[in-house]
Amino acid sequence: MRIRIEKRFDSPRWMDWGLPLIALLLAFGAGALLLAALGVSPLKAYAEMIRGALGDGYGLSETVVKAIPLALCGQAVALAFTMLVWNIGAEGQLVVGALAATAAVRFLPSENFLVMVTLMTAASALAGGLWGALAGWLKAKWSVNEIITTLMMNYIAILGLEYLVYGPWRDPTSLGFPLTPIFHEVARLPQFFGTRIHAGLFLALLTALLLRVVLRWSRWGYEIRVIGQNARAAAYAGMATSRHIVLVLFISGAVAGLAGMGEVAGLQGRLQPGFSVGYGFTAIIVAWLARLNPFAILAVSFLMGALLVGGDTLQVVMRLPLSSVQVLQGLILFFVLGGEFFRNYRLHFLKREGDA
Amino acid sequence: MTTASPLVDLRGITKTFLGVAANDSVDFDVRAGEVHALLGENGAGKSTLMNVLCGLYRPDEGRIFLSGEEVHFRTPRDAIAAGIDMVHQHFMLIPVQTVWENMILGQEDFGFILSKSAICRRIDELAGQYGLHVDPEAPVWQLSIGEQQRVAILRMLFREARVLVLDEPTAVLTPQEARQLFSTLRRMREEGHGVIFISHKLDEVAEISDRVTILRKGRKVGTVKTSGVGPEELAEMMIGSRVVPAVNKRAGGAGEAVFQARNISVLNDKDLQALHGLSLELRRGEILGLAGVDGNGQTELCEALVGLRPLVEGSLAFDGREMTGAPVRDFLSRDVRYIPADRRGTGLVPTMNLRENYALRHYWRDAFRKGPFMNWEAIAGQTGRIVERFDVVTPSLGVPVRMLSGGNLQKLMLARELDGDPRVVIAMQPTWGLDVGATAFVRERLLDVREKGAAILLVSEDLEELLALSDRLAVIHKGRIMGLLDDPRLATEEMLGLMMAGKPLASFGEGA
Question: Which residues in chain A are contacts of B340 at CB distance < 8 A?
């Protein structure tokens, strides 16, 4: 038997939601093999994950807590991806945002809650934005590949964070632990329902709404979409592509920076290394699974949040390493990207002989 | 002609795409030692039928017989093995490889070690026999389009094809090259090959073919002996009851020069010089035709004239105002419009809908904005009006334009560029690939704006079109103007052909 690949003229509508769904199922199927190889019953493991993440109020609230930075970073990279600018640096932008929020608390303390929150928000957005815009400027000016620069700048940001918390910003009373002092009460975002769900949730929802409005209705959003879908046509329309690259990476970085502020001011109350479990990287999976749709990103973030919380349960209950959950995430991205092939091509199975 | 079974016999071929029959029970056959023309408008189903013959498509219904025996092709390789081969409009050569390397492309029966000298000897042999001279050692990217076509044809012969399909082979050739091609085709006929010649040019079909089959909207209209019919009859069979509309060139005295390019030099996408100090001027109410074989700097010229490509040297002026180095938007806001040849790649965003594609060149106007937002209602209103005025056939304004046919895409783009009050129109191949009706429509609209006083540059490969529409006619070759004729009616096809091949007008002497 031979297989022939044929280009599709048009992909059926069901594929928009069907392909990611099939990809998810296949990823969990492949993950089951892995779990079985680790000597664990896959069914039991998945049941534990679901119970841990969604089974009770605490699990649900923790899922939402993890979904907040995922959603913000997801919106951030989705905006850049819409223009075919590959921002792989949301993790670094998130870290830089957290650093800037901490710096605001440290160097511009205020007794007023509103002033303090405004300062932290502005500082984190500006810092994340500039971190992204730097890569954008390099690309616009000298065509430096942004995949490389944004990726490498992640590590600069993470190492910068470690320097500060191990060095000048370390809390002298922390007994040597790499932590900053705990933030003052006015520098904390409110938490709700007696859970750890914090005000960053509103930022995530608002960003989704804004992104939808901007992309669909604004002139700038229209330009972004044209540049992403046909760069030659954008030049023909007189759009200033290089300026947009810098601006898009600024905004993308700013949104990821807000996620960093949410983590330190809303959740941890202080800066410490490893406060982000790779939200900026997982956000890339989130954005693709959601096909860059701002509202779908919210839903997918919840799903991936559940995966993270369920993964914690796996570690505790089944004594599996954290990396097994990361493998599962990787499998999801692998199948989602692989599934894109079937959107554009169809396969024909041909028998070698005697087939009319 | 023999009475034996034809080389190839297609019977009752039906092929449907998305519910539309591209071929509807079509019969077609080729005999040994004949050139059989396949004639039809764009979208008539010529390419589909040939793709079925060459194993690219499988027919929904119908049978294929080779010398009387039924065959089933699953891939083009099966068809090639059976002696059926095709030269596509894009030649499917590997540019970085040499001619001889391209010859053996996709062939498996050469063993592990290639005998290059044997291959080259065979190439020279075939080249001599059919008048297709090329250097076997030359890399394909160094060859002209005409030479590349020779390589593609040689490859069919090299693979020992008996049935040779040529898809619109003259579209990329100068008249001289076309004559050379025809003599090659005659040689093939003498050698007993069956040649299928796809075209929509009546004069060529009349000149080269023995029989002609006419397709219209996927159905076969008939097969006739070419010697027994006139061009009018063929045209009528091709387009049905419609009459080929002649273009009525209307009066419109040429006015003052409004747009000047002086000594401009630009680079192409590979950073090689595409224009060498070229100058031209466009006048109000006048069409300046620019003839030339595709790839001689026309695209680069058009892009330079509308601000899309930076000048290395020279200057542009519009209305006495210096425009050198101005951004595209400045040209747009002064109503300098551009109809690019590359509709899907440059002129339109295929994944976006009609409204969004109209907005592409107009969204910056005050009428179409509400502060930082798009005024989609106003854009939709205007899009609806131009779609109606230019008779663009579409299910709605909300469908992605890639769903539209080539003719409708072109009408949409034309409607967008001619909307409002264009002062300068740079039109590149505006009727390329369009059927007779759409072609006449496009030409009429260009004449409309000429009448309203626009200055137009018409770049085309179609001499007939240029001679019918142009007030003045220039010929471009390798980035230089070979000559400018103030009265195109004085030009002979012979002379234009020579200029297109690089002979300057000045060298013809005073008589020209």
Answer: 236
Give the nearest partner residue to A217 out of B327, B332, B374, using CB atoms: B374
Report the number of distinct structural domains present in chain A: 2
Whether B247 shows a pLDDT value over 80: the answer reads no
Q: How far apart (Å, rounded) are the C-alpha atoms in residues B314 and A305?
A: 60
Distance of CA A269 to the CA centre of its chain: 21
What is the DSSP code string of A174-225? STT-S-PPPPPGGGS--B-TTSS-BTHHHHHHHHHHHHHHHHHHBHHHHHHH
ipTM: 0.82
pLDDT digits (tens, 9 = 90+) for B440-488: 888 999 999 999 999 999 998 777 788 889 999 999 988 999 999 988 8
- The answer on A202 and A61 residing in a single domain is yes
* Parent domain of A77: 41-318
Nearest Cβ partner for A233 among B329, B360, B364: B360
Cβ within 8 Å, pair A230-B349: yes
Cβ–Cβ below 8 Å for A230 and B345: yes
- The answer as to whether A34 is a domain residue is no
B67 within 8 A of B2, measured Cβ to Cβ:
no
Q: Which amino acid is at B68?
A: G
Query: Would residue A32 count as lying in a domain?
Result: no
A162 shares its domain with A257: yes
Is the Cβ of A84 closer than 8 Å to some Cβ of chain B? no
Least confident stretch, A202-206, B70-74, B107-111, B402-406: B107-111
Give the residue-averaged pLDDT of B35-60: 87
pLDDT tier at B242, thresholds 50, 70, 90: very low
Residues from chain B that touch A350, judged by Cβ atoms under 8 A, are 74
Q: Which residues of B touch A235 (CB under 8 A)?
A: 308, 328
CA distance B170 to B193: 20
A232 touches chain B (CB under 8 A): yes
Question: Are B266 and B298 in contact, with CB atoms under 8 Å apart?
Answer: no
**B369 → closest Cβ in A2, A10, A219:** A219
How many beta-carbon contacts under 8 Å exist across A and B?
73
- Could you tell me if A123 and A264 lie in one domain? yes
Phi, psi of B318 (to 5 degrees): -135, 125
- Where do the domains of chain B lie, and which CATH numbers do they carry? 8-239 (3.40.50.300), 258-505 (3.40.50.300)
Chain B partners of A9 at a C-beta cutoff of 8 Å?
17-18
**Same-domain pairing of A154 and A212:** yes
Residue B185 binned pLDDT confidence (cut-offs 50, 70, 90): very high
Contact flag A9-B18 (C-beta cutoff 8 Å): yes
Q: Please tell me whether residues A279 and A330 are part of one structural domain.
A: no
A118 shares its domain with A183: yes
Question: pTM for the full model?
Answer: 0.76
Q: Can you give the pLDDT at residue B511?
A: 45
CATH number of residue A55's parent domain: 1.10.3470
Low-confidence ranges of chain A (pLDDT < 70): 1-2, 4, 9-10, 350-356
